[in-house]
Write a structure and sequence with these properties.
The chain has about 475 residues and is α/β, with parallel strands linked by helices. The chain folds into three domains: about 80 residues, Arc Repressor Mutant, subunit A; about 240 residues, Aspartate Aminotransferase, domain 2 (3-Layer(aba) Sandwich); about 100 residues, Aspartate Aminotransferase, domain 1, CATH 3.90.1150.10. It is about 40% helix and about 10% strand. It has 16 helices and 13 strands. It has a seven-stranded mixed β-sheet with strand order 4-10-9-8-7-5-6, with helices on both faces. Strands 1-3-2 form a three-stranded antiparallel β-sheet. A three-stranded antiparallel β-sheet has the order 11-13-12. β7, α11 and β8 form a beta-alpha-beta unit. α2 crosses α4 and α15 packs across α16. InterPro entries: Aminotransferase_I/II_large, HTH_trans_reg/aminotransferase, PyrdxlP-dep_Trfase, PyrdxlP-dep_Trfase_major, PyrdxlP-dep_Trfase_small, Tscrpt_reg_HTH_GntR, WH-like_DNA-bd_sf, WH_DNA-bd_sf. Pfam families: Aminotran_1_2, GntR. In the C-terminal section; belongs to the class-I pyridoxal-phosphate-dependent aminotransferase family. Keywords: Antibiotic biosynthesis, DNA-binding, Pyridoxal phosphate, Transcription, Transcription regulation.
Length: about 475
């Protein structure tokens, strides 16, 4: 919800316009609609939203600062005093579908038009072998959990805590896949189409989200490169969102502990929301590293994850970890979209978290074997291609000996094999000398795919130019 809703009919008050705005902001803060630590929109941004002059907002903010209600720091924005800056520039609002988010234990729900699960559904669940007291308790509810099933939120919080990032259940939002989490965060962080920064190459999912919002997009060198370019780029561009994959980006790298701490500390000092995507962390060959937020205490460092990569692509379950006020705001936005992620999926996910260490051990052992097989196949059939063994994950980042990946991938398609050209994983089409291929296929499937890829490369290489070849 936008901050305008907290201000209501502020302009109908008496007095100068800046005084009316200041009074409305003060009232919203006193009501708790704008909690302590909330970052208010920049002067220019709020002026645009309210269709007033920037000077009006400037004078209103100045009055709040004089009253000790607002704190402003150069480069960090203005936020409500009495709490840590939390990056939440939007005020919460309750509506009927999400009324339980405010205080579910104290609420008698006479608003949700839904029934508990029927006996036949309970029988079907029991037949699947997932019937237990936790499942029964979930089936006894109307089934609407906008922020996520409480048991799953608690389990995810425990998992993050064990990984080195102390987390409470109210700091976790369950989403329908990590893609929804990214969409919610981008919509929250970029209300006025502020610029965003992503690594290049990066996840295609975040590019889809940001292109859909039509925001200015800038690529940054991979954080695994060990340089300090990113903080300087943030200072220069002043983005609303920075998206990073320090754990198994397309390059297959895992940022070391020292570099993580240095990066997290630097970004925690910036006034931008930083999203650390750990969706593939469970597939790291060695120990799973803590998220960036574990290395610096700052509410602008957020973590997004998924259960789909480790357990099953069809298990469309993701999560966002951040400060509780921001998670509550995102839950309200999610409720407006879908009222909550399917509950039975969450029941299953809660059980899977209890055996995740076992699942991870089996997955990693299998991936190591398939990587060794893939390496031998690539060496035999595509010896000219260059690649570095990844530190986990499902894919390889192959460098072409010549030409462009975009043209080569089209030829490969005609030979019956699909690969991802590196250019589509960058905001500006960079890395088009690489392709991404999945090695985590059964050996016979991978071998057939590489045979076809080798045939496609022979045809492309001998075509004499960089245009797709019609067969």
């Amino acid at each position: 919800m936008h901050i305008q809703d907290a201000l209501a009919d502020w302009s109908a008050r008496s007095g100068p316009l800046y005084a009316r705005l200041s009074a409305a902001l003060t009232a919203a803060i006193e009501r708790g609609d704008i909690p302590p630590g909330t970052v208010l929109p920049p002067e220019r941004s709020l002026a645009k939203r309210l269709a007033i002059g920037r000077s009006t907002v400037m004078h209103a903010y100045a009055r709040l600062r004089e009253a000790g209600v607002l704190e402003t720091r150069q480069g960090s924005g203005s936020w409500v005093t009495g709490g840590h800056r939390n990056g939440n520039a939007e005020a919460p609002r309750d509506s009927l579908p999400v009324a339980a988010l405010r205080n579910p234990a104290a609420l008698v729900d006479l608003a949700t038009a839904a029934l508990p699960a029927h006996r036949r559904l309970r029988d079907a669940v029991a037949a699947l072998g997932v019937a237990d007291p936790d499942t029964a308790a979930a089936l006894d509810t109307p089934g609407y959990h906008p922020a996520g099933l409480p048991a799953l939120r608690a389990a995810l919080a425990d998992r993050l805590t064990a990984q080195g990032l102390p987390t409470a259940a109210d700091q976790v939002l369950v989403t329908t896949g990590d893609q929804q989490g990214l969409s919610l965060l981008a919509g929250h962080a970029l209300p006025d189409r502020e610029p965003a920064i992503v690594e290049a190459p990066t996840s295609p999912g975040i590019l889809d989200v940001l292109h859909g919002l039509s925001v200015p997009l800038r690529g940054a060198p991979p954080v695994t490169a060990g340089g300090d370019e990113l903080p300087a780029l943030v200072d220069r561009i002043r983005p609303g969102l920075v998206y990073l994959v320090p754990t198994l980006s397309p390059l297959g790298r895992v940022l070391g502990a020292g570099d993580r701490k240095r990066l997290a500390t630097a970004l925690a000092e910036r006034d931008t929301l930083v999203v650390d995507d750990v969706s593939q962390a469970g597939l790291v060959f060695e120990q799973v590293p803590p998220p960036l937020a574990a290395y610096a205490e700052s509410d602008n460092l957020l973590t997004v994850g998924s259960l789909s990569k480790l357990h099953w692509g069809g298990l469309r379950l993701g999560w966002v970890r951040g400060p509780a006020p921001l998670v509550a705001a995102l839950a309200r936005a999610k409720a407006r979209a879908d009222l909550g992620t399917p509950v039975l999926d969450q029941v299953l996910a809660t059980r899977l978290l209890g055996v995740e260490d076992e699942v991870r051990a089996e997955r990693v052992a299998e991936l190591r074997d398939r990587l060794a097989h893939a390496g031998a196949t690539l060496t035999a059939l595509l010896p000219e291609f260059r690649w570095t063994p990844p530190e986990g994950g499902l894919s390889l980042w192959l460098q072409l000996p010549a030409g462009t990946a975009t043209a080569f991938s089209e030829v490969a398609t005609r030979f019956g094999v699909a690969v991802v050209p590196g250019g589509v994983l960058s905001p500006r089409g960079l890395s088009d000398d690489h392709v991404r291929i999945v090695y985590a296929r059964p050996p016979e499937v991978f071998d057939e795919g590489v045979h076809r890829l080798a045939a496609a490369w022979a045809r492309y290489r001998h075509s004499g130019d960089d245009q797709p070849v019609l067969l």
